[in-house]
Amino acid sequence: MNIKQTLNKYKIAPDLGKDQFFLTDTKIIKKAIEFADLNKNDTVLEIGAGPGNLTKKLAEKAGRVIAFEIDTRFKPLLKSLPKNTEVRYENAWKYIQLRGKWKKKKEYNKVVSNIPYSLTEPFLHNLTFLNYDKVILLVPIKFLKKIDKHSIFGSFFQTKILLKVPKESFYPTPRTNSVLIELIKLPDPLKTKNSGLFLRQYIYQHENQLAKNSLMEGIIKYSDIVHSKKVTKNEARNIISKQNIPKELLEKTPSNPSIYSLAENIII
């Protein structure tokens, strides 16, 4: 598919306000499919189907594809996709903000997406609540740096650069180069007996609580599961007090990233 010619044919001008930069390099699309290691047992999520050039290739390998596309102008291009593809013409934001509810009802096990830049960060936040097998994303290089330095994302997964993608591989051409990455989930801290990582994850997954309360609960839970030891609330509070964590951080929800690095120092 020649993206530029196809869009001209259907009189579709890319909406840069919706981050519509479409991957045109078929070699990179093929590589993304290979890295995803798809089979007929997989259900794949794609956000931002656009003209469907990636979507079609996903459908050839996976058992099912759930593709989101907010721009209904692409309906004529997407109507000929294979029957195992479900295109949802709606804002994916409503879908990805469900967070923890997906643990009980998960629709997909893999993600392959040239995800719109504006949705990348909220989507990564949502992944911290989910179980998944593989996540392959095409993101701008500048966002990769943000992921690696992010206090919350660094508590749940690490990034692996699979392929560097020059900006000329897109139509229209964006300002920056991109990278194809895999998000690799960190090992379960309960199994690896990493109390600091467990507490970092726990306070984020209970972000509506005061940090002091989620830390206390996390210490009690970790001690019970890993050490088969019952720790009282007072004992947990004493453990926290020895860390000299500023009161202003403990008395608030974990909006300040400093709480994550301080929580990691707690050894149980």
In words, what does this structure look like?
With 268 residues, the protein is α/β, with parallel strands linked by helices. The protein folds into two domains: 3-185, Rossmann fold (3-Layer(aba) Sandwich), CATH 3.40.50.150; 190-263, no CATH class. The chain is built from 13 helices and nine strands. It has helices at residues 3-9, 26-36, 53-61, 75-78, 93-96, 117-127, 141-149, 189-192, 195-205, 211-227, 233-241, 247-250, 258-263, and strands at 22-23, 43-47, 64-68, 85-88, 110-113, 134-140, 157-165, 170-171, 178-185. The chain has a seven-stranded mixed beta sheet with strand order 4-3-2-5-6-9-7. α6 (117-127) links the parallel β5 and β6 (134-140). The chain is elongated and about 70 Å long. The model is unreliable at 100-105 (pLDDT under 50).
Main features:
single chain; 268 residues; alpha/beta; Rossmann fold; 2 domains; seven-stranded mixed beta sheet; two-stranded antiparallel ribbon; 9 strands
**CATH homologous superfamily annotation of the largest domain:** Vaccinia Virus protein VP39
Write down the overall geometry: elongated
- Spatial ordering of strands, largest sheet: 4-3-2-5-6-9-7
Unreliable sequence segments = 100-105
Structural class by secondary-structure content: alpha/beta
CATH architecture of the largest domain: 3-Layer(aba) Sandwich
One letter per element, helices H and strands E, the order comes to: HEHEHEHEHEHEHEEEHHHHHH
Total strands: the figure is 9
**CA gyration radius, whole angstroms:** 21 Å
Multimer state: single chain
CATH fold type of the largest domain: Rossmann fold
Give the number of domains. 2
Q: Specify the biggest β-sheet.
A: 7 strands, mixed
Distance between the termini: 57 Å
The fraction of residues in strands falls at: 15-25%
Mean pLDDT: 92
The proportion of residues forming helix, as a percent range, comes to 25-40%
CATH class of the largest domain: Alpha Beta
Number of helices: 13
